[in-house]
């Protein structure tokens, strides 16, 4: 069964406590927290104070996805805010290996995200240092976008790379994940699904999470 990581970017922020309580009651495994700086991506989301408050509501894994430039400046602050996994974008890291060393030294799991135009082959020399690879299946910055079909091919390539090296790397997909395409995403090699609109805009989010948990 895949890891299900609902993205709170799609949550109702006027009722954030209730949204967190719902996720805690559900079969969701992780809380996926998207941080945007308005520079790396053309949008601004929430930051450290909101994550600190969300952390207080749950014992589940806080999966923090940094869509920001110079993530190394903030890694320690996100650790202190409660991040369990810290994902940085390969496109934002001039010295990716150093970024990964920093994240691990702070006691967090390491994640690397790839935008739709970035080939998975760029991970070849650092894959052994990455706990999770996040494949963006939409262009980052906004929720509610449509899944890019070529993502399935990228997932298969990454799955081969990970299997050849016999690594336990988690393969996460973020963007346009729905009940209609989740099975094909898992079959292509994904082990973690980020779902925003399809969960939080659902008439019954807990039931939707349960259905996503059973795809594959």
Fill in the keyword field for this structure:
alpha/beta, TIM Barrel, 8 helices
Compact description:
The chain is an alpha/beta fold and 216 residues long. It has helices at residues 16-25, 48-57, 75-81, 96-105, 151-164, 182-187, 197-200, 205-213; strands at residues 3-6, 30-36, 61-67, 85-89, 109-114, 132-136, 170-174, 192-195. Helix 2 (48-57) packs parallel to helix 3.
What does this structure look like?
The model has no long low-confidence stretch (mean pLDDT 96). By secondary structure, the chain is of the alpha/beta class. Helix 2 (48-57) runs parallel beside helix 3. The protein has a single domain, classed as Aldolase class I (TIM Barrel). An 8-stranded parallel beta sheet has the order 1-8-7-6-5-4-3-2. Helix 3 (75-81) links the parallel strand 3 (61-67) and strand 4. The chain has helices at residues 16-25, 48-57, 75-81, 96-105, 151-164, 182-187, 197-200, 205-213, and strands at 3-6, 30-36, 61-67, 85-89, 109-114, 132-136, 170-174, 192-195.
For the biggest sheet, the summary is: 8 strands, parallel
Number of domains: 1
The backbone outline, from C-alpha atoms, is globular
Q: What would CATH call the class?
A: Alpha Beta
User: What percent of the residues sit in helical stretches (DSSP H or I)?
Assistant: 25-40%
- For the terminal residues, how far apart are their CA atoms? 7 Å
Low-confidence stretches: none
SSE ordering: EHEHEHEHEEHEHEHH
* CATH architecture title: Alpha-Beta Barrel
What is the CA-based Rg, rounded?
A: 16 Å
User: Strand order across the biggest sheet?
Assistant: 1-8-7-6-5-4-3-2
Total E-strand runs: 8
The number of helices is 8
